[in-house]
Amino acid sequence: MTQFFIQIAFGSLFLLASALVHVAVFAFGIPRLARLADQMQPARHIFRTVMLMSAGIALLIVAHTITIWFWAAGFYGSGAFSDFATSFYFSTITYTTLGYGDIVLDPGARIFGSFAAITGLLTFGLSTAFLVGLLVRILPDVFQQDQNNNIT
Q: How many helices (H) and strands (E) does the chain have?
């Protein structure tokens, strides 16, 4: 029973640390995206949109990559897998909730592993909210037109 609570505790800590990674990347990236947007004001609208969305997606890729590496290190460090490549593969598959089933954890690590999937769900949700917020900021006139059309 103690192993059960240890898995929950470590899974919760890894989940919290992963969420903080995403928050830190957002806190670092949002002011820079805003500055880039201001610098690109005279640029053509389509070019500006493509550049800002690409920069936003690059930030998300960095955040998700750091998180996957973090979970892979956790699996490897806990002894769940004997090599880092398998840990990384399992981390990626679990984090994205694909779960192919070709590699499974021993019962002593399954609860910890399920937190990797929960982390993926949470951080992909944060990423979606970030991208929607970025789109609303980049394309306010488009969203304003849609809102006005829905009111009438």
A: 5, 0
Give which of 51, 53, 88 is closest to 72, Cα–Cα: 88
DSSP 1: -
Sorted by sequence, the CB contacts under 8 Å of residue 131 that are 6+ apart come out as 53, 56, 57, 60
> What gap in Å lies between CA 12 and CA 140, rounded to an integer?
38
Q: What is the pLDDT of residues 11-40, one digit of tens each?
A: 999 999 999 999 999 999 999 988 888 888
CB 19 within 8 A of CB 123: yes
Furthest-apart CA atoms within the chain: distance in Å: 62
Tell me, rounded to whole angstroms, the distance of Cα 132 from its chain centroid. Answer: 14
Residue with tokens 């949700």: 125
Name the band, by pLDDT with cuts 50, 70 and 90, for residue 43.
low
What is d(CA 4, CA 34) in angstroms, rounded to the nearest whole number?
A: 45
What six digits make up the tokens of 43?
């640029």
**Closest to 67 measured CA to CA, from 139, 19, 33, 132:** 19
